[in-house]
Design a protein that fits this description.
Layout lengths: L12 E4 L1 E4 L2 E9 L16 H44 L3 H13 L4 H18 L3 H21 L13 E5 L4 H7 L9 E6 L7 H9 L3 E3 L13 E5 L4 E4 L3 H15 L10 E2 L4 E3 L5 E8 L4 H15 L12 E5 H8 L5 H15 L3 E5 L25 H6 L1 H14 L4 E6 L5 H20 L10 E5 L2 H5 L1 H4 L5 E4 L1 H9 L17 H16 L3 E4 L9 H8 L3 E4 L4 H10 L2 H14 L3 H14 L8 H4 L12
Parallel strand pairs: 3-4, 4-5, 5-6, 11-12, 11-18, 12-13, 13-14, 14-15, 15-16, 16-17, 17-18
Antiparallel strand pairs: 1-8, 2-6, 3-7, 7-8, 9-10, 10-11
This protein binds phosphoenolpyruvate (PEP) and magnesium ion.
Length: 630
């Protein structure tokens, strides 16, 4: 845990965690305390066995009913894919193997039902937690939810109070997926939940996935922050930097309020003229077209991206089915893979890619080949000392040609059903690209031999996320159709700062002049070959970065669906020639991330695009933005 007491106000506390869902929330805290129930160990007499088993069966029935109710609510709130979290819970509470083990403990070990449930489900949790796969480790929280639900019935405890009576930020040691859904059930703005701040949890936890689907800012891994916060305390939840500030001083508060407005710019319900469907994006004030597309990480986001597209295009009074606007600039295909734990077959992949191509046609979708490795480790895979510098992305695909070819064929086959682009992650060396392109040719020949259709002209790009690739972008440019700059990795590899490490989060500075120079090199190399350069890392959605990225000549921004409107509004507010002068000035003069930021703030301030940022936000210690990352 890290917290500092602000010098101006003794009561101000700052906690650092990890951002699980972006955005900024400001409001009163609601401290949600759920004492974890435990089943006491004692012996029961054989005559009590039947009664205990009956109590257990009735608890299971009640749990199923409640989970089904929550699942339906979740379906309304976040759609089917995300609500399937509760289907998985339902399966767990219907798993006869587990239920039988509990019955046996009651019957043969002569234990009360509550204790049998506690021991059996705790063992299941321990098994999940001991695994290699971080996603499975976080699934242990779902078992906790079921365990606590059953214990509550068995110990006759009252219902948890997951309800608020005014807009609040939920502060808790941990939340279950059900809590997250129940807190967000109110449709009424006066009792709406504003965000979640949790001591525990991870960015891949179900609560984090739900928070993203609900569009609620959230910070996890705040260690024991909740201990120091009371209901009613004023808090700022900073899902941009992964911070929680309690009882902020006026200066900090004002700064955040301004930043919140900046984020909200263009996010209103009003029709947005800033999205120009005919150019698939937004125009700068002086008319320069810039493409905007969306990033898709989890299956659960498909519906959100679609809804955002329809709502934006609908408000621009255009037939969403006929305009190429708002496609997908990055589909992280590995996420569909990791969530299912099993390598999907070519057919399964093709079904997914084809579905996306059809849904977004005639807009383009960009399928990135699997980027496993790094922090996205497959179960049972080899343990590496430095996974981020290890067997990752295209390196794995090239070593596993059968898997790679199956994915390439699946993507190619989908290309007949819409407009599909493909790109390779973690390219470092031109030989890797040459080999990947050879496999692509091989995949095409295999399909031709099988008389399968595909789009032979499907555009192929590479991610620029390793400094070596940015420095040699001119070598790569002739071989590809586009670059997509992955600023998340480009920043970590350029600055040697692990993107997921709390301890050095403040050093993770995407607006570092060194990172900007690499972005510039990439764009210049792309344009020299008449190719496009996209930014698909988190920097693309970061409000302060818009003027400098526009100025550097970025052709396309791919951002989270929730960021499209505000990005379009920001692009529309900027003159591209002025932005170019700003970018040149920054590259020439700025020596540190803080100087970059200061120049941008002055640029925005001079044009009344933003009044003022407080020192609290400008200061280097709060500038290291944590990533929304698995
Ligand atoms: C990136 O590195 O910026 C990127 C978009 O890829 P990912 O976050 O999936 O590593
Ligand atoms: Mg990356």
């Amino acid at each position: 845990m890290s917290f500092t007491i602000d010098q101006e106000s003794e009561r101000t506390l700052r906690f650092s965690g990890i951002s699980a869902s972006r955005g900024i929330a400001i409001g009163p805290a609601f401290r949600y305390q759920r004492t974890l129930l435990k089943g006491e160990d004692h012996a029961i007499s054989p005559s009590e066995v039947q009664h205990q088993i009956e109590r257990f069966e009735s608890a299971v029935q009640r749990a199923r009913k409640e989970i089904e109710k929550i699942r339906r609510l979740a379906e309304q709130k976040v759609g089917t894919p995300a609500s399937s979290i509760f289907e998985a819970q339902m399966m767990m509470v219907s798993d006869e193997f587990i239920l039988d083990s509990i019955r046996r403990r009651i019957k043969h070990e002569l234990k009360p039902a509550a204790y049998a449930v506690d021991v059996e489900l705790s063992e299941q949790q321990a098994l999940l937690k001991a695994g290699e796969n971080p996603i499975m480790r976080e699934r242990a929280d779902d078992v906790e939810d079921i365990k606590q639900r059953l214990l509550r019935y068995l110990l006759d405890r009252a219902k948890w109070h997951s309800k608020i009576d005014k807009p609040s930020i939920i502060i808790a040691e941990f939340l279950t997926p059900a809590d997250a859904i129940l807190f967000s059930r109110s449709e009424d703005r006066t009792t709406a939940v504003l965000g979640f701040a949790l001591d525990g949890g991870g960015v891949t936890s179900h609560v984090a996935i739900l928070a993203r689907s609900l569009g609620l800012p959230s910070v996890v891994a705040l260690h024991n922050a909740s201990e120091s916060i009371n209901t009613g305390d004023m808090v700022i939840l900073d899902g941009e930097r992964g911070e929680l500030i309690v009882n902020p001083d006026q200066e900090t508060l004002r700064g955040y309020q301004e930043e919140q407005q900046l984020f909200a710019l263009g996010a209103s319900e009003s029709p947005i003229e800033t999205i120009d469907p005919s150019i698939s994006g937004a125009r700068t004030r002086d008319g320069k077209p810039i493409t905007i597309s969306m990033n898709l990480e989890f299956g659960s986001e498909v519906a959100i991206a679609e809804a955002e597209r329809t709502s934006i295009l609908g408000s621009a009074k255009v037939d969403a089915t006929r305009t190429p606007a708002l496609g997908l600039g990055l589909v992280r295909t590995e996420h569909f893979l990791l969530l299912n734990e099993e390598l999907p077959t070519e057919e399964e992949q093709n079904a997914l890619y084809e579905d996306l191509a059809k849904r977004f046609a005639p807009a383009e979708i960009t399928l990135r080949t699997f980027d496993v490795g790094g922090d996205k480790v497959l179960a049972g895979s080899y343990r590496e000392d430095n996974p981020f510098l290890g067997w990752r992305g295209l390196r794995i695909s090239l070593d596993e040609p059968e898997i790679f070819l199956a994915q390439l064929r699946a993507i190619l086959r989908a290309s007949c059903f819409g407009k599909v682009r493909m790109m390779f992650p973690m390219v470092t060396n031109i030989d890797e690209l040459r080999r990947a392109l050879k496999y692509l040719e091989q995949a095409k020949s295999q399909l031709t031999a099988n008389r399968e259709d595909f789009d032979d002209g499907l555009p192929v790009g590479i991610m620029i996320e390793v400094p070596a690739a940015a420095l040699l972008a001119h070598v790569f440019a002739p071989l590809i159709d586009f670059f997509s700059i992955g600023t998340n990795d480009l920043t970590q590899y350029t600055l040697a700062v692990d993107r997921g490490n709390d301890l050095i989060a403040t050093m993770y500075q995407e607006l570092h002049p060194a990172v900007l120079r690499l972005i510039q090199l990439t764009i210049v190399a792309a344009h020299a070959e008449g190719k496009k350069a996209c930014v698909c890392g988190e920097l693309g959605g970061y409000p302060l970065a818009t003027p400098v990225l526009v100025g550097l000549g970025v052709d396309e921004f791919s951002v989270a669906p929730s960021q499209v409107r505000s990005l379009a509004a920001r692009i529309h507010a900027i003159d591209s020639t002025e932005a170019e002068a700003l970018a040149n000035d920054i590259l020439k003069n700025a020596q540190s991330p803080n100087e970059v930021k200061q120049e941008i703030l002055t640029f925005l301030g001079d044009r009344q695009l933003m009044t003022r940022y407080s020192e609290a936000i400008v200061g280097p210690s709060t500038f290291g933005k944590k990533l929304i990352k698995r």
